[in-house]
Amino acid sequence: MIVVMKIDTPDLEIQKVIEEVQSDNITPEKIIGEHKVIIGLVGDTATLNPEQIQQLSPFIEKVMKVDKPFKRASLEFRHGEPTEVLVSTPNGVVIFGQNHPIVSIAGPCSVENEEMIVETARQVKAAGGQLLRGGAYKPRTSPYAFQGHGESALALLAKAREVTGLGIVTELMDPADLAKVAEVADIIQIGARNMQNFSLLKQLGAINKPVLLKRGMAATIEDWLMAAEYILASGNPNVILCERGIRTFDRKYTRNTLDLAAVPVLRTLTHLPIVVDPSHGTGKAEYVPTMAKAAVAAGTDSLMIEVHPNPAKALSDGPQSLTPEQYKALMQEIAFISPVFGRQSQKLPLPTGVVDLKIHKTASTV
Ligand code: PEP
Ligand code: MN
Q1: How far is the CA of 359 from the centre of ligand 2 (A)?
Q2: Which residues form ligand 1's pocket by a CB distance below 6 Å?
Q3: Strands (DSSP E) along the chain, which ranges?
Q4: What's the domain count of the chain?
């Protein structure tokens, strides 16, 4: 249930309402929006009577039930106002949100060695990316496949961060590694396979670091939002959702089915920012630029793209990785099309004239 306070309600009055509704079963949460303050009531709200609550103060504009199983993640909980997740990087604050330029996260599937991660980071930065991705702990289907270099890879990510100023996105698999990963990561990634690892999700509530929650490969949109709810309910409001494709019957030509319809659907359900990962979503580099652009058209707030200096030699996910040159060309196209979909482009210069555009198109579809 949410209690919407009128514009310019005095703080004391808000506090009075919070104290009145607080009980063993109900936790009120004050949400400060751009124009209004909302008090979210979470817990056993079935017994609450909205009309009675309305009587608590003349400053209450309205009282509404949230009929979805996810509460804090619901659009109603912020009265329709999109959440902005702020990520501090050495290069400045990067904002994930609907009213901001599209954020680009790029880098290899896994961190392989110092040279490759630092060089990739440099190229990602030069192309206009704001965050470097790279796995230190890799969730692999086979126990015999490369599992990531672990702690030493975290140190290499820290190095790449220092050299380029890019923020770092890296995956946490084991709650025991939380402190180590949080020290290096500016955003902690929770992979598709751990989307419903509830004890891991609860641990993320204890920190304030932004969390990129990937959609489980067989998760419904509601399962996914309930997983986000775990993080929000345990105290961390900085959750970013990442669509990375789901399992369907066709695996012959694509690795997953990128569910781009999830983007507009999520917009009707949640205030949380959205990232689309067309690399895992398709599994093939040749389809990544098309689906990245389609994600922009669908309204994503950010893209996550796997980029490797030599995809043929990558230790994981080479077939779906773009080369730095392909990534650069894609970034130019994204900058060009973003304004058409109501997004400011990033700081990249817009290509001017038909000749430029042709060059970009050819380059990204190599
Ligand atoms: C990854 O980002 O490299 C990864 C393993 O992703 P997912 O959890 O979506 O499979
Ligand atoms: Mn990968």
Answers
A1: 28
A2: 109, 135, 139, 191-193, 214, 244, 280
A3: 2-5, 26-32, 37-43, 60-64, 85-89, 92-96, 103-107, 131-133, 167-171, 187-190, 211-214, 239-243, 274-276, 302-306
A4: 2
